[in-house]
Amino acid sequence: MSDPLSNPTINTTNVGGQTTTQNIIGGIGSGKSNSVGTPYTTPLQTSAHTAANSLSATNSPIPTHHMINSNSSNNLSGMATPGGPGLQQQQQQQQQSTISSNNLGLLGQQSQQQQQTILSPITTQPKSISASCFEFFYIEMIDCIMKSSSDKQHAHKKLDKLGFKVGHRLVERLSLDTALFPELLDSVKFICKVFWAMVFKKTIDGLKTNHKGVFVLTDSKFQWLQHLSFDSSASNKDCSEYVQFTAGLIKGAMSNFGFKCIVTFDIQQVSTCVFTIKIES
Amino acid sequence: MIYNIYIFNKDGTCIYNEDWNKKKQSQNQSEDQKLLFGMLYSLKAFITSSSPKKIDDKTGFHCYKTSTYKLHYYETLSCIKFIIMSDPNVPDLRDDLKKIYSQIFVEYVIKNPIYKPGTTVKCDTFINQLNLYLKQMPSFSS
Amino acid sequence: MTINSIYILNKAGTLIYQNDFGNTEKLSHNSYIRLGSTFHSLHAIASNLSPVSGSSSGIEVIETEAFKLQCFQTHTGIKFYVIADPNHQQLEELLHGVYELYTDYVLKNPFYEIEMQIRCDLFDYKLLRLLGVRE
């Protein structure tokens, strides 16, 4: 999977100049600066990047777009970049960073490190994260959450909430350069095309709507169900927990566009998923 | 002609076994599996001791042949053993065993959220894919 | 194409002859006896594991990444096996040759006790000559 945050349409460091992009999530914790100009990342991005980069981007088990926002300043201090690889990581962070405008505000413990940063030509190289690693992680995560409560409904709600948070933040990042959506249908189309492509590397296969606030999205080869198969003798063929997270993702994304909705899903045949979005007006 | 396939995990449990073209009815499947596992264990130890050069435990042993069958062996780093018994004229199947491991076993068993490691493999997709793969091999029914 | 060692086992599976050639590592005599017996058992079990009905012989060839082991079992139950280079092609012929030498220089030796350790100089000499030619 290519890292969605290295989307070429997102502006990266602009030497000396100022690009006004949104300061995404409040600036607690240290920002990063470098020797020329003052581009720096917001804490969310930094923590996401450092986590991924410190594990080596080509084989990171946790794709950045699926990480839950953790306490940024703690994370930053925890992931001090060591020597040589640190340099590469710094460069990568620059490539991925969003730039907030020139408010110097928050130089934290990391400022020492930033002084050592050498500016490199900015290239947005797509990075890949092992899809297998993510799949294994995902399986364990679902398992862990299902075991954490004896009530299945409760566990499903947890997964939904988790997906909500991730979707909410992810869509913020992904819709950086797109114009405002004039209507509801455009937001849903964004989800079908851009959002789905970033998360699953493919677009939604079918979109239907009744123009009254109900949308039906069909994914005929849902990625996270591709390798799932039941024993031929199994009586209980319920794998809804593995799709619940995605329903939350959609819900979070839509809510960040300003539309509160209910997302239900239906698993048909082998790995075909149908998501139904009902907008609450 | 391929007779059967066995997959053993680290503890010696046979997690998968399927027969084709087999002409002998075995009295007791689990006894056969245990015998096979034990025999391979001893064979590997024998090979390590009698080898003139240093030999790796897992990748050392390739196959053995008798007058009626040939046993092909592939062991992964995670101690999962893939064994195919075929007739003696079949050429080396190690590459096929590697492919079965990486493209079929890992994809449809390890990545299957429903599968619990250590138990017998009963996943439909794995069984279907495995049969598909083996049946398209030229040595399957020759 | 190097030959590393030759082992001869009697009907009961006891080692009656062992020799190394080239720069094979020398093990203790007990280790050789142990290896010989292990092979005898493995040979027998392999014939039980046969997936086809009808009797199977024991192990004939073992292929590994560092060596190839070829075994020849006579109708009288004597096993000759050789450990050699993995690409060696004529091991079967070699083993037949060794069997011939065995019948000529061991069995026809009046001082040799059947099924006991082979301690015949002439056999050794002829064997070395045979292998010298083959190598």
UniProtKB/TrEMBL annotation, chain A:
Residues 1-98 are annotated as: Disordered. It comes from the Eukaryota. One of its GO terms (biological process) is endoplasmic reticulum to Golgi vesicle-mediated transport. CDD domains: TRAPPC6A_Trs33. One of its GO terms (cellular component) is TRAPP complex. Residues 9-37, 88-98 have a biased composition (Low complexity). It comes from Dictyostelium firmibasis. Belongs to the TRAPP small subunits family. BET3 subfamily. Pfam families: TRAPP. Residues 38-78 have a biased composition (Polar residues). This is Trafficking protein particle complex subunit 6B. InterPro entries: NO_sig/Golgi_transp_ligand-bd, TRAPP_component, TRAPPC6/Trs33.
From TrEMBL, chain B:
GO terms for cellular component: endoplasmic reticulum; Golgi apparatus; TRAPP complex. The keyword Membrane does not apply. The keyword Ribonucleoprotein does not apply. It is found in: Endoplasmic reticulum; Golgi apparatus, cis-Golgi network. One of its GO terms (biological process) is endoplasmic reticulum to Golgi vesicle-mediated transport. It holds the Pfam family Sybindin. Keywords: Endoplasmic reticulum, ER-Golgi transport, Golgi apparatus, Transport. Part of the multisubunit transport protein particle (TRAPP) complex. Belongs to the TRAPP small subunits family. BET5 subfamily. This is Trafficking protein particle complex subunit.
TrEMBL record, chain C:
Transmembrane segments: none annotated. Pfam families: Sybindin (PF04099). Its main location: endoplasmic reticulum. One of its GO terms (cellular component) is endoplasmic reticulum. Keywords: Endoplasmic reticulum, ER-Golgi transport, Golgi apparatus, Transport. One of its GO terms (biological process) is endoplasmic reticulum to Golgi vesicle-mediated transport. The keyword Transmembrane does not apply. It comes from the Eukaryota. The keyword Disulfide bond does not apply. It is found in: Endoplasmic reticulum; Golgi apparatus, cis-Golgi network; Golgi apparatus. Part of the multisubunit transport protein particle (TRAPP) complex. Belongs to the TRAPP small subunits family. TRAPPC4 subfamily. This is Trafficking protein particle complex subunit. It comes from Dictyostelium firmibasis.
